[in-house]
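In keeping with the milestone schedule agreed at the kick-off meeting, the structural modelling team has produced records for the first pair of proteins. Each record is given below as a sequence line and a structure-token line. The laboratory manager (R.T.) confirmed that both were archived under the project's standard naming scheme.
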Amino acid sequence: MKRLYKSLMFMCLAVVLGLLSSCSGTDYLNAIPKKSTALISVDMQQMASGKSDEDKAGMLKSLLHVEDASKCGIDISEKIFLFESADGNLGLCAKVSDEGDVEDWLTSLAKQHIATEVKERKGFHFSVLKNSWLVGFSDQALLVMGPVVADAQAQLQQQMVKYLKANEDEGITASPMFERLETITSPMAMVAQAQALPEKFVAPFTLGAPKDTDPSQVVIAAEMDVKDGILQVKGETFSFNKEIDEALKKAAQTYRPIKGSYVKSMPADALAGIFMNVKGEQFLPMMQSNRSLQTLLMGINQAIDMDNIIRSVDGDMAIVMPSLTDNNMQMTMAAKLSHAKWLGDVDYWKTSCPAGAKIANWGKNAYFYTDGKTSFYFGVTDDKQFFSGSDQLMAQYAVKPSNHPIDAKIQKLIVGQKLAMVINLAKSSGSDGSGKDDAISTVTGLLTPVFGNLTSVVYTLKVKD
């Protein structure tokens, strides 16, 4: 009898444990699509430790107009996740603590004309926030996705129904990206495919990948932090494809500590800058296989042997983009050289220009190329520094300190790193109407209420020795 009683107790315990595991505290994550291309986890409890509950809820206030976090039905003690779905929509996922409170909160927003009236669809509730963000929720998860125009909202809502009813096998926790995210201990962490980034910022992350690599196969894993208005991203690139992963790891060993020769040359109002220290002969194959950089140099390469110029590099190198759109390519490049023997080839370049293009002198060891659409000024200083730019002034100042350089705090973050990229947030958002820029705006907009105004993003590469 005792044995039977004990067996029944074990069976009851197993049933209870089964029920608990099927309704675990992470079930809300099933609403994040498994094939998301980018995923950011934000632990507000850790990030805002020492701050009031009101400050901790600043992210929700920014996007969702939450006035009282304790009454909106969202559990801010659990991580909030930002993601980009495979079709390019941005999303936020949070755990629901009280479904009724969520509905009451949205109803109050509807009365203020901030959101639409809450409606039920296939067992879930939906509203439209600020005309472009769809809010859907269940008793477990709150999903916010967009931005979308009115005509596309019905289709997105239909997709969100599938996400909200997804099981564990269909959600993000079953993906390799989530598994990698869980290994990052930072309060704010990111795992993202390179294809999820704005196209103009992809180049540094895909350097070293084989030539035909799709950006979806290169993944960035990073810890994130905010200090002094700077979003600091310390990450590494890898791939779930073994061959690509090995190539990326090998390429990372090419970088040497940045000495800081050109950190003062980047103007504070420039869009972006990439900094590194390399030996050109080792770096050239990486550059040749990088589609983003090749596209950037496409017009110039037809007349100027950039490969030979890169081979002569030995030391710090910086590529700065004052602005960059499809219609107006601007950039400067500065680099320390081991030699400038290629200057002897310039006369040949002059005679072999494509029709309608020319190369002419504009100073000592200084030349300019133009084809009527693109202009490129370049040259070498007496102390063997390569300089170039889209116009004469930009080229000359590529190796000189700017009158208004990037903040000294940013300069300090670059020096000593193996690879660094700086993004000016004021110029990155909406500069070309790209939806990808919305991702940067959304993330920084969510962090601003907690950390104050964000001015820059500084990405540095973590290299395992």
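The second protein of the pair:
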Amino acid sequence: MLYITKETVNDIMKWDNKPAGYCKSGDTIVFETRDCYDNTITSSERPLGDREGLSNPVTGALYVEGAEVGDILKIEIEDIKLRSWGVMRSSTTAGVFHEKYEKREAIIFEVKDNKIYFDDKLILDADPMIGVIGTAPVEKEGIPTTTPGKHGGNMDCKKIVKGSTIYLPVNVKGGLLSMGDIHALMGDGEVFICGLEIAGEITVKVSVLKNIKLPTPFLHSRGKVMSIQSAKDLDKAGDMAAKEMFEFVKEATKQDDVRTGMLMSLLSDMAVCQVVDPLLTVRVEFPLDVLEKYGYKLP
């Protein structure tokens, strides 16, 4: 099994990122990841970190043999393992509440046996998710790992969890898949500026899909399929995600525009993934079992 260590990281997704590893379609790979602070914050007493670090580093890139422009990478999330502690830090410039904070403050939280020890009164169940996962984008200048887009990236979608499958576009030969920014727990919106940021290991199975049409980034998680889109404002992101899902549902069910719209209004759910990145991210969910009643099979 290929193991890509946390020593091979980038803070930009780009066509010319040097591959950290090569795999064949159907292979299983482990990505060892740093936290979004580049593992620099190791104490609450040093909220700015104990060294200069990358911003939101991702591990990679993975070159998938046989992946050509126009293909889709199917990434099955088989496992997410967490470090024994995570960190959250306030921001004076970003996040819904940033005006309340005069300085940056960090708190370290113990994580043990899938539990988060918030304080002496509250223990939370962890629900590990991947904040950043993406391929090299179309844009030649690349896209920073702080930003989401059509390539995936910093979507901060809490549904990208163990057992889920995400579909991403191949924009350059080999795809150049990277991932990182694990959260032990995060609510929709990521309103504070971060989730419980944590280092760890992500085990994935990567396959190349050819001649398949999906509205990437596209996610299958916990019984639902999801279109994930990002834009400078939530209205635009929501419109994009809903329209992508509309066309997908229409094709999957062979309904006309009116009945497709009715199905969407009856069964789809729109949710905000995050409101704190350079582009804002919205997902639209639809139950897979309904599509299967019409004979659709997810690749």
